[in-house]
Fold these 2 entries.
Entry 1:
Amino acid sequence: MPTTYDPFLQGYSGSPTTIEWGLLVVIYLYTAGISAGIFAMSGLATYLGGGRYRRIARLGALLAPWPLMLGLAMLVFDLGRPLHFWLLFTTIQFTSPMSIGSWLLTLFVIVSLLYLVLWLPRPLRNLIRVPQRVGDLLAPARWQPIPSRTVRIGRGVLAAVGFPISLGVGMYTGVLLGAIPARPFWNTPMVAQLFLFSAMSTGVAFLLLVATLVGDLLDPAALEHERHLLVSVDAVLIVLEIFIIIPFFLHQTLNTWSSAASLKLILGGPFTAPFWIGVIGLGLLLPLAVEGYELFPIILKEGAIKYRRQLSLASSLLVLIGGFLLRYVFVYAGQLSHFLPVFAR
Amino acid sequence: MSKKGREAPEPSVLDRPISRRTFLGVSAGTLAALGLGLRLPRLSLEPSLSPDGGLKPLPPVVFDREVYSLCEQCVWRCGLVAKVKDGKVYKLDGNPHHPHSNGMLCPRGQAGVATLYDPDRLLYPMIRAGERGSGKWQRVSWEQALDYVAERMLEIKEKYGPEAMIFSTTHNLLQPVFENLLKAYGSPNYGTQRSLCFNAMIVANLLTYGVQEPGRDYSAAQYIIYTGRNLLEAISNSESQALVAAIARGAKVVVLDPRFTKTAAKATEWLPIKPGTDLAFHLALIHEIIYNDLYDHAFVEAYTVGFDELKEAVRDYTPEWAATKTEIPASTIRRIAHEFALAAPHAFAHPNWRTSNFLNSFQTERAIAILNALVGNWGQPGGLQPAAGEEGAGLASLPHPPYPRVAALRLDGVPWKYPLVPLKLGVFQEIRDNILRGEPYQAKGWFIYRQNPVNALPERRKTLEAFSKLEFIVTIDIAMNDTAWFSDVVLPEASYLERYDPLTVVDGIVFIRQPAVEPLGESRSGLWIFKQLGERLGLGDYFPYEDEEDYLRQQLAPLEITLEELKERGFYRLPETAPAEAEGKPTLSWNTPSGKIELASEVLRNAGFPAVPTWEAPPEPFEGQFYLLTGKVAQHTQFATHNNRLLHERVPDNPLWIHPKAAAARGIADGDEVWVESAAGRVKTRAHVTERIRPDCVYMTPGFGHLSKGLRTAYGAGASDSDLHLTFTDPITGSQALSQTMVKVTKA
Amino acid sequence: MADTTKKTPRWVFVMEPKRCIDCEACMVACSVENNVPIGHHRNWIAHQTKGSYPDVSLFFAPENCHHCTNPPCERVCPTGATYRREDGLVLIDYDRCIGCRYCIQACPYDARYFDEERGVVDKCTFCVHRLDAGQPPACVETCVGGARHFGDLNDPESEVSKLLATHQHYTLYPEAGTGPAIFYLVD
């Protein structure tokens, strides 16, 4: 793991760079994005097509909280004083993306867990008893399963409430990095959108992966339109990501010397291969090609989607790998980028 | 948002609703111990300076005592103030009243706490329990150790004569007592490190000016020429301060050095001179100044002898001639000669310090001394100054019975082989070589105090071989340095922060070294050790003091101040003695045979050497070889500081400096491992490819590559240049020529 | 130190690179004074080597935390552990630090370090404990070259005020908009 990168040094040495944020932080940003993407997709599925995508909605609801919870565990473990993480919740620092983020994540966890409960299959859901009237709060014996109407309305409300929160979670992981002028590789407005669309894309890919793997337990034919939704949403997201990466490069190159030099980290520097082969090739172009192939007939209005199990597995895995590598490259490369040492001027 | 210190914050809109007190009430240390998170151990100093060891770093500590004393991390001996609490030293600061520190301490001085609390301190006397260098020791009591040492020393005296015992030490405050011991014992063999350092400079100045080392006035200097003296890395605190002030003021500084040192970096002009040819440069300056009539006629006529002889001798030493030797353009040499003469008398060529470079370094020093004389800067503002008074003047000396007469020749060849070397300087490496040769007699024992000959002498292998010829070796030191590691008996001296040493006088002010804290373990002061030993050797009369404080009181007897007062204040200004010169007029007599400045020296002529500075060509490397340069860094002192954890952190090793072209030709990239090989041996080290050195030179910072496993931080750090250096001794001054070793460098 | 009973001081450094000799006495003094763990540092000497033999130059300048007027570390701290005092000092309330190291990312000067043993972030405090006792920071006191000047910018008679009034000076990374309290004199 390199700890210095020469274009920033130019014969200068001062306080050395340290890589403070490592794999634990990368995993956290990655899983937060996946959870956000899953929930957003599930929320979308709740409203679209009048129930046609119920099973996507259910699958998403059941999966959404877990990647993030894993990531949060990693994050707390990474702290210098893990048992003091609760200090985050004794204040809101509006200028600190991390402070805002910790509150956002808390909201997301609460909403997604409640949402999960409401989407549990009925036998499981009925095991949970809640008070029906305020007066019953202290009388657990009189608690009943959640009424269907509450469930129906609740799902809609939580989906509506949770959708912007998911977008917030997806964006905030980018804002966390983008808000740091001291790390020119990060300090671009593009990074928030990039991470958002990547979050959505990896979330959808995760759903696609799980759906494909458990598809044999369900009726394959019935999955067609659901798979169509997932694949086309993912394809659109990938295209959007590409159209964010292009201005990312343009802006950085035309920005300050430090910003332009920071691009060298992925244009010849130590992260060139992981970025171009991993993020762009495996994570964007290749899955887009696969999904394009699957969607081809529909796009040309020639016939049914060319669905194949292997293709879905391939494209979803590739997106997931690419999404991880995106976080990896950004977190590590960013920490090697610096302002130009002033004495060189 | 504003909050004060660690008190409760002022209420604000972002006020936290929950109290800051952790309701868990458990310290961070305990939580860390529960295995949460991976923690690297903190290699903090002992004692822990954080009293509660918890979240808060050092709070404002109120010290119990502030003790005035003297640093010992190098020979400059700056005054310091030790801040003490609960019997531990927390911090060292410079003593503003001491002219060597002016209130500031260099990095080594500041790191003194890590020397004091070095986990590898020698804490009790030990006698070797295995082969020499095996690291097997038996701890014994002081009684046993001192009895044993005295017994062996008396045995040697009995069987072989007192001359068979060598005594050696390096510049320190206890030297008068040490010399007392060896003279009382009756040995003529006194080794100091001076021939590895400044013999050339001292002998040249003694012969020219009659003083060992002229002073320098930086405050008014407009032009200064340095011949290698890397004053900003080989820090002599107050003099380094003075140089920086002169540079900041706009003085022009010219540095001759094959390496772009930090002094060169701050100087006005750096001349990357070919090693060993500084002599040619200065001879050319002398030529220019004489033949262009730029010298101070009045001064030369009135106060020097030998001008005509000098003029004739330098006739052919033109800048053009010098350019072929030095690889410095003739126009540059010419220009500097004119600039120097123009700025005179407010200009000086620094007499240098360590001049153990080439066999012709003596001639270089003579040339520098004469260059200064020609422009008449003696005693002028910004020029050379008459030296300060004798160290120790004003204090009483302790009485002693007459010393026994010594008939034996000295092992270092003074004066029978080196007639011009002062007795007090000696030729240290000759001692080692004569132990090996057994000439003029076989030495049998070596008593070493505060010195590290195993590392200091060139050709380390030879020194260890010399050790094997000796029956008894005893070393007194504060840590298990390489010499102690190979000794028979090791006696632990208390460090400089734990002991009294004899009082010293600097610039007319008496300074005290006193203990800031109790000595660790069973370590004791040198004053105590020598008295104890002296008594056991039957020489008790030569140590007429009860204890350390008694010694100091006797020194203070003629003065108006008590020991208690001196301990309190840290210094005492001696009453003014009648000034040797009236205000403004410099001292215009020199302690030479002619009473004047000797441009031509009869003493040299009579001894069969050139009377005036004469060109001597230095050796040159063969094709593919390099000059091996040596030098200093600000963070280390010779061989003494490498186990200090704070200084080790700053400079942990000594990679080989090599020019990019030379490196490329050998396929060496920055950081690659390389073999450096001389006729004496070879070492493996890392390469540091840099533009800051001549392509025909390589450089290693000395002092690394320790052999002693008793120095757990220093052991294995870097490579030793003592393993590479060959021994070359100047017949005039006995000076070593440490830069005459040529080396081959290959990729490992 | 000047009499500051009437006005709150504004503590600043004025560095004179011309006088810095890269001896690192300031680094050792700081580590001892503040019990900085070995392997970390609160201050350092920045240096720049330029050119090729024999036209080489070497530039040194002392540096530590710049105690910015607009500190990015304070901005990003999620618990409010890092705060700025009225006299300009940016300090850390260790009780509130959870060791997330976001502030280390945010600092353009790389002035902060993570103290693994205590689990919190730490940095130069301008020796606040010495300031409160009327003494200069440890690094200033020991600087052999006299390159580190320190004082109260709110006092027009202070050495730092006079130096800034009579010399051209610059700060590091002005594009970061941090408003640092360390000024460098032009050679």
Entry 2:
Amino acid sequence: MSEDRLRAVVAAGVLGSEEGNVALLQSVVDVARAIFKASASSIFLLDEDTDELVFAAVSGEGSERLLGTRFPSSKGIAGWVLVTRQSLVLEDVTGDPRFARDFAEQTGYVPKGLMAVPLLHGERTLGVLEVLDRPESSKFTLAESDLLGLFANQAALALDLLLAARRARAVLEEGAGEDAVVARLAAALSRLEEENRDAGLRLLEALTETLERK
Amino acid sequence: MALVEAHEELPAWSLPAHAVEGISLSSDWPELVDREWAWGGSTGSNVRVCILDSGVESGHPLVGEVEGSVAVSIGEDGEPVVEEDSEGDLCGHGTACAGIVRSLAPGCRLYSARVLGAGYTGSGRVLLAGLRWAVEQGFEVVNMSLSTTKQDLAGLLHELADSAYFRRSVLVASAHNMPVDSYPWRFSSVISVGSHEGADPLQFFYNPSPPVEFFARGLDVEIAWLGGATIRASGNSFATPHIAGICALILGKHPELTPFQLKSVLHLTATNVAPA
């Protein structure tokens, strides 16, 4: 293995394994479900290439079966939350036939109520966190709303790690995409003589400053 | 390039002495602005309220008639298209907002601009095109329970929000309950709304520490839902139409108010500001 390849592999390893990141997502939905005493909780990851939401972690009802299941990104409650970036709490929606049908199609389990919150990371919307069937007896409070927001933040960070690790692996496996451009740039820079490398570094620093400028 | 065509009348860029009399504006504002003066006896009649959302189910018992509906999508050439809409509501949320506005301002005229259903990828541009359409129509109140986090759209949205402000379209937008940089609710030319925990639909608070400017009823609200149903729900997106409805009430009685004046009336009649 070449030195460059070794560095890339090490970098990808540092970013974490797919299993490790998925386990982090799983722990977020497990804890969310426990804290809210809910029957289930899920994280949907937005796949921008296909404009679909994908079950990335599920705790409770239907957990194993649902992982990887996809549906259109602007469909149903999760779609509304994703597109509007607004969180939503609904109680007793079983009287809505379309809601029940959508859920039955997606999960085979129709909840009476749900909480859904967008997973925001900087400018990006990475997905949606849902918590199904919290106890009906308790009235929803602002404190719960804040808690839901905190979980969403954690889930968004976990999703971001997962996506970064996947991009790193894609570079190793395919050598394509924007990360590959950066990798090639780094390689080219390292091959330059000292004087040219200093000039190159100054150029890249200027470029970085420009890109970071809001 | 300006997003919205300028008014036909040229704006006044300066004020010569001879023009002072021409802009003399009589004000019937009382010494003490209270809720009775602000909207007493008003049903919001003739005020046009546009619900920018997932569509609205016309004829729902809590909504009544919707006078016009359009849907915004991305056309084959990649540009946003605004067309008449017969799909109704794709999610239920727009109907819920329309029902809340109707419950507060039963005399208002409801319109729907559906910006949901075109997928996530084009959603920012669809939102922008929907809002542009609503501002061009001159709706007195636009209810927006939505936002975008895209920085490249923020500038265009800001320009549009300012344009609406000067064209007397009041944009009422849902705030986030987390410190998120999203738009347009953060702009001072819109009225941003978060939730309080009270149960009174006319209870609202002015927040002296923006960016969220008002708090309205947003928890455990009985709302209209698809298929003529009624459910209970919570979220800032339900607090927003409460303020939109109150705006419609005020404008029904005082149609001459500009968004700046309307916001002042909201401030003076807020639960934490109005004298007991």
